[in-house]
Backbone:
């Protein structure tokens, strides 16, 4: 765990109607790569939505560099420094790659011009004039990440970034995330169903079970605990 916390989460509850989804989720992270894993329905994506302002009825606190984000709008959370790559990518089919960055307008961080994003994703640079609808799934994911990064977040949250992608494409995304972390500009919080991708994306693994974080350890340590992987994720190892 980082000495200086970038994100502090202490969510006592979050629900959809009468269905309790999160209950007592507490952790903090710094400028590091953290992955949250768990079976379907354990509250991982809901936690993403709570932190990013897309689920505003949770109780507790979510602080980014001391600013409490809980219950604030997604726009406020974005201005505070949280970038979000949602599950399913959600790019605009009728816009070109370049237009996705142009439409950011005043929200664009001057330190992240288009060329810097394209340096991160060279394949995307070659498709910059293509409509998003004509991109492959991997290229759309690159675009979604690039769009989130272009606003200069201090924390980048990605929900299931490897979903539906070929292993070779996932390798490229992992390399890009490593480059982002090496700049020292942001922390990265990833929700992943794919354990193989999670252990390559992150230096720290948290496991969610029934709305709670029950395991929090380094990736290296987690890889040695095949008992935990089998008990909570239904796998016998990371491969």
Residues:
């Amino acid at each position: 765990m980082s000495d200086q916390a970038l994100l502090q989460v202490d969510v006592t509850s979050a629900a959809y109607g009468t269905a309790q989804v999160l209950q007592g989720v507490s952790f903090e992270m710094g400028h590091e790569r953290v992955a949250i894993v768990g079976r379907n329905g354990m509250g991982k994506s809901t936690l993403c939505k709570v932190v990013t302002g897309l689920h505003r009825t949770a109780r507790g606190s979510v602080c980014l560099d001391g600013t409490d984000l809980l219950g604030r709008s997604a726009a406020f959370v974005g201005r505070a420094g949280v970038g979000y790559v949602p599950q399913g990518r959600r790019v605009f089919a009728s816009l070109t790659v370049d237009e996705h960055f142009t439409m950011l307008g005043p929200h664009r961080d001057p330190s992240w011009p288009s060329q810097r994003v394209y340096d991160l994703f060279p394949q995307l640079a070659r498709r910059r004039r293509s409509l998003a609808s004509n991109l492959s799934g991997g290229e759309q994911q690159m675009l979604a990440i690039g769009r989130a990064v272009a606003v200069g977040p201090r924390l980048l949250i990605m929900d299931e970034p490897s979903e539906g992608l070929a292993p070779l494409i996932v390798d490229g995304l992992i390399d890009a995330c490593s480059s982002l972390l090496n700049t020292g500009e942001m922390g990265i919080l990833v929700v992943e169903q794919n354990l193989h991708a999670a252990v390559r994306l992150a230096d720290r693994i948290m496991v969610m079970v029934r709305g709670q974080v029950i395991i929090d350890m380094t990736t290296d340590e987690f890889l040695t605990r095949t008992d935990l992987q089998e008990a909570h994720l239904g796998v016998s190892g990371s491969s």
